Amino acid sequence: MSARRARILRLFCAVVLLLLAAGPLAPIHAQSAAPTFVVTFGADRLDAPQDGRLILMLARTDRPEPRFQVRPGPDAIPMFGTDVAGWTPGSTRMIDDGAVGYPVQSVGDLPAGEYVVQALLNRYETFNLSTGHTVKLPPDRGEGQQWNRKPGNLYSTPQTVRIDPARDAPVRITLDQQIPPIDPPADTKWVKHVRIQSDLLTEFWGRPMGAGAHVLLPKGFEEHPEARYPLMIFHGHFPYDFDGFRTTPPDTTAPCEYSARFDVDCYNHVVQREAYRFYQQWTSEDFPRFLIIKIQHPTPYYDASYAVNSASQGPYGDAIMHELVPHIEERFRGLGEGWARFTYGGSTGGWEALAAQVFYPDDLNGAFAACPDPVDFRFYQLVDIYEHENAYVTEGPFQQIERPGRRDALGRVSYTVRDENHVERVLGAKGRSGGQWDVWQATRSPMGPGGYPQPIWDKETGAIDPDVAEHWKENYDLRHILERDWATLGPKLEGKIHIYTGDMDNYYLNNATYLMEDFLEGTTDPYYAGEVDYGDRAEHCWNGAHDLPNHISRLRYNTLYVPQIMERIEATAPPDADLSSWRY
Q: What's the pTM value of the predicted model, to 2 decimals?
């Protein structure tokens, strides 16, 4: 035998010995089985087939329940979603590799280990729209469009399971719980609750639909039946009641609750103290008398409609301004004229307040918009929907950089635009997640062929649709609309626009405000004569109070702008205006 053949033989024998030492080999086609989850529809909960979104959540702890741990970012828990249709009580549905997942893509990607598992069915109902489309959506049931708290939704008791890819047996879960109804708030001496059925919304949705409000009455309302009052409209997310108003001193014996957002201990005591402080101001002898309303206008897509007319959500702008507001003013003796109406709010409410002023310029006499959602879609947070091809990444010739979605005051990023959108992708297809990006889409997009909002971008990849972006620009880009229509809008908006944003807003909302400021300050025919101001190193949601920390100023919206409002009334009220009956 040659030396070369002997070396080959020795090498072959060494390899064989190593393989034998490693133990028996599995067939090369064998793979670890992906776990499957079999969910049973508890037969004792509902007696009719259900449509909806089935959501599976897995956490490392049951405190709080997994349904309350859903979020984007490094603390995200695995979650998976799939649509169900005609699901009958007592039957099962399976969640397997076909379900959409975040932050892992599929159940097959779950690491082995012990989990607390929970499932929930966000129930849909059928809406026959006036457009001729039939859509399935989750109606609001008094909770403000929160899928994990929505009355009537089914969910499972959390259970601890071990996920093992080598195990063939499925994990079995039963939807054995149902979220109970929410009792509506009761009227008090100071706060009244109003709800109307809107003819406009009922026609659009093909079923009775409406809007409501919590009305704060001024001191002396009953004692002065001749008085008629200015109206302040507080826009924002869904309010269960008129929060921030408390007629008794704070309960300092209650256990302290720490606010991680503001790094403030006993923040629950602070909130109660500020609410009582507002009551004391409101009922003092020298505080101006007016009505304040907090509007309830949830849609099947979100906790608020964004207070504008929309192809996919219906004519909420008109319903609020032409039906709800006149109804409240008639019932509670409002002055009922544009010079005596003002609007304010922060974040969602900041955009709503500014949009209401822009789209109904004669019906309002001033908007105070704090940390508004993007007012110029060249900075839709950090996405330029007109120039960028992809919402999720900044693209270069050799690499892609993920686009941030949230930061803190020091610039530290906690999650990306992709993260937020992929959470929403799990929670609902066709824009039905109830999330922030989906409601922006539901508000601003044209209606698609199936009756759902046309996507502004592909939810999986982030690829932007330029035709949808153009529709957004012409109908909802507030800076563009002001520039386009300033010849007619400018004279109606002089002195009415006030915008406040922290220059380290968590969601980069200051960037769009800079573009709005550039236009407003650069326009002189006429000059806007309002205010744009920034909080130094202030996060979301700075509202113009330079002398207060954010955790306090956010609790003082109802009094913060009153001096400017009273000055505006004095300066702009028509000669025959009632400036006396409400001053007692």
A: 0.92
The three-state secondary structure class of 159 is strand
**97 CB-near residues (< 8 Å, 6+ apart):** 34, 106, 107, 108
Calpha distance 154→67 (Å, rounded): 12
Task: Look up residue 519 and give its two tokens.
Answer: 């236009």
Distance CA 128, CA 451 (A): 10
Tell me the C-alpha distance between 302 and 306, whole Å. 9
Domains (range + CATH), the chain: 37-178 (no CATH), 191-371+542-572 (3.40.50), 379-473 (no CATH)
Q: Are 309 and 317 in contact (CB under 8 A)?
A: yes
- The amino acid at 388: H
Q: What is the mean pLDDT of residues 366-371?
A: 98
Contact 150, 144 (CB under 8 A): no
Residue 37 CA to residue 40 CA, distance in Å, equals 10
Average pLDDT estimate for 432-454: 97
- For residue 23, CA distances in Å to 13, 14, 15, 42, 322 come to 16, 15, 13, 47, 79
Average pLDDT, the chain: 93
Mean pLDDT of 541-563: 96
Residue 582's identity, in one-letter code, is W
Tokens of 496: 């009415």
Decide if 80 contacts 99 (C-beta within 8 A).
yes
The answer to whether 288 and 566 have CB atoms below 8 angstroms apart is yes
Q: Give yes or no for a contact between 557 and 345, defined as CB atoms under 8 angstroms apart.
A: yes
